[in-house]
Amino acid sequence: MFEIRQAAPGLSYKSCTMDEWHHTTASLPRPHILYFVEAIGDDGSATRVTKRYSDFVALHGALRDKGQLPPKRILVTSFLPSAWADDRLIAERKEGLTSYLNSLLAQEEYQAHLLLTNFLFKSLGASARDISLEDALPSTLSRKAALAAQAAANATTKIAAAYYPDWSAGSVPPESLDYSKFDILFFAFATPNSSSGISWDDGSTAILKRLVAAAKNSGKGTKIVLSIGGWGGSYWFSQAMSSAANRTTFVNAAVSAVNTYGLDGIDIDWEYPNSAGAGNPHSSSDAANLLSFFTSLRKALGTAKLITAAVTHEPWLGANGSPLTSVATYAAQLSYVNIMNYDVWGSSSTPGPNAPLGNLCGTSRQPQASAQAAFAQWTHAGFPAAQLLLGLPLYGYVLQSTATTLTGVALPAPAAAVAAYRARVLQLPPGARAPACARAVEAFDAEPAFLGGAHARARAPPAQGAVGPEAKAAAGDLGAYMGQQIPFNQIVALGALKQANGVYVQENGYNEGWDDCSDTPYLFDVARKTVVTYDDTYSLADKAAYAKSSGMAGCFTWSLDQDDGYTLQNVIRSSLGK
Question: Which domains does the chain show, CATH number per domain?
Answer without folding.
Answer: 13-154 (3.30.1520.10), 159-395+404-460+535-575 (3.20.20.80)
